[in-house]
Write a structure and sequence with these properties.
The protein is of the alpha+beta class. It has a domain at 68-207: FAS1 domain, CATH 2.30.180.10. 53% of the residues lie in helices and 20% in strands. It has helices spanning 2-67, 70-75, 81-89, 109-114, 117-123, 129-137, 147-156, and strands at residues 102-107, 140-142, 160-164, 170-176, 179-183, 189-199, 202-207. The longest helix has 66 residues, at 2-67. It is globular and about 60 Å long. It starts with a helix and ends in an 8-residue tail after the last strand. The relative contact order is 0.12.
Length: 215
């Protein structure tokens, strides 16, 4: 009986020891799970911050691109205030602020002043918005035509380079001495007074006359 009692005591002590060990093991697992969850939470927070930082960077880059776009550069050029006004009137300023690839022959303020006052007033009337849009689109060619490319195209074309604008009508580039001139559909020539201005979405040439397609 004494031996049986002793064995019983030893067995119960062993069970208590195992139970304690299992309890400690569970505690360790619970603590480990808590640590892992904490790490996951920290990673998620870090990813959230990275996303926010990336979005902020993209927003800054987009804003910089808009500021350096064709329309953006025109807005801060005092000699292109008339062009900016008519672009806004025709709602083309948004197009020339978006990403793209254009070559724009931008009439200076003096170029617009050369137009008869009646013509200017008529173009600005709401009912003539389509005509104004067409006139402005006649000053825009698809793609980036740098001055080097323009010079080469004129040379390869035997002194002239004819290209289409975004409204479907054509312009012709040629040289007058060292100066590039642009001939419109009426045969009238506008001289480039400042060329090869880089924008985020194209190239700008400032010209001294408003171009008109042949009617």
């Amino acid at each position: 009986m004494k031996t049986l009692k002793t064995l019983t005591v030893v067995f119960m002590a062993g069970m208590l020891t195992v139970a304690c060990k299992n309890e400690k093991k569970d505690d360790i697992q619970l603590e480990g799970n808590t640590t892992v969850e904490g790490e996951i939470s920290e990673v998620s927070n870090a990813d959230g911050m990275n996303d926010a930082a990336m979005k902020e960077k993209m927003d800054e880059e987009t804003e910089a691109a808009r500021a350096n776009s064709i329309a953006g550069l025109a807005q801060v050029n005092a000699d292109l205030s008339s062009l900016t006004m008519v672009l806004q009137s025709a709602q083309l300023d948004t197009m020339l602020m978006k990403p793209g690839s254009y070559t724009v022959f931008a009439p200076s303020n003096h170029a617009f002043e050369k137009l008869p006052e009646k013509t200017r007033q008529e173009l600005m009337l709401p009912e003539n918005k389509a005509e104004l849009t067409s006139v402005l689109q006649y000053h825009v060619a698809p793609g980036r035509i740098t001055s080097d490319k323009l010079d080469m195209a004129i040379k390869n074309g035997g002194g002239e380079y004819t290209f289409k604008t975004v409204n479907g009508d054509e312009l012709t580039a040629m040289k007058n001495g060292d100066q590039i001139v642009i001939k419109d559909g009426r045969g009238k020539k506008a001289q480039v007074i400042k060329g090869n201005v880089e924008a985020s979405n194209g190239i700008v040439y400032i010209i001294d006359d408003v171009l008109m397609a042949k009617k």
